[in-house]
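Hi everyone, sorry if this is the wrong subforum. Our group has a chain we'd like a structural model of before ordering constructs, and none of us has done structure prediction before. Sequence below.
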Amino acid sequence: MGEPVVLRTARLTLSRPVEADVDAIFEICQDPLIQRFTTVPSPYLREDAVTFVALVAEWWDSGRECVWAIRDERGLAGMMGLHEIKDGAAEFGYWLAPQARGRGYAAEAARSVVDFAFGPLRLERLEWHAVVGNLASARVAQNLGFQLEGIRRRGLAGHGPRVDGWIAGLLSTDPRTPQVWPI
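Answer:
Right subforum, don't worry. Here is the predicted structure as tokens:
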């Protein structure tokens, strides 16, 4: 893939995280919900943010993953990515800073990333995984048109015992209309 792609929405810019973001990433990743519902290390150290920014650069260069920092007028609002890109598919994931939640940023950024995944990247499938109970993440996936495919019992590794995880999929041919899930 090589050169990182910048995506823009009405209110947001999505671009590769850089060294200047390290302190903001470190601060945001202290949030208990991010540590509970994502795979960030816990406890999250400043060195973890330094390593993450370096890894993202390598991922873009290799084409294995596309990770964007979500930015609003105030600065870093979150992260969103396409992970483990291969064989026409990728895992879709995201987190938002506490101060950015409730503004529709995840949905706005996600539409742009999904368009990129199914457009220029020509992917056929996106998978979304979340810890059972992460309703905010589920709402975003539902509204994008992801179809709930099930619960993976103890399917997700966390910061302790394995936990149950939801899995949903979106195909490039699926309508991007809100879905109703039995959760």
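For your construct planning: The CA atoms of residues 65 and 83 lie 5 Å apart. The helical segments are 22-28, 32-37, 46-62, 105-118, 135-144.
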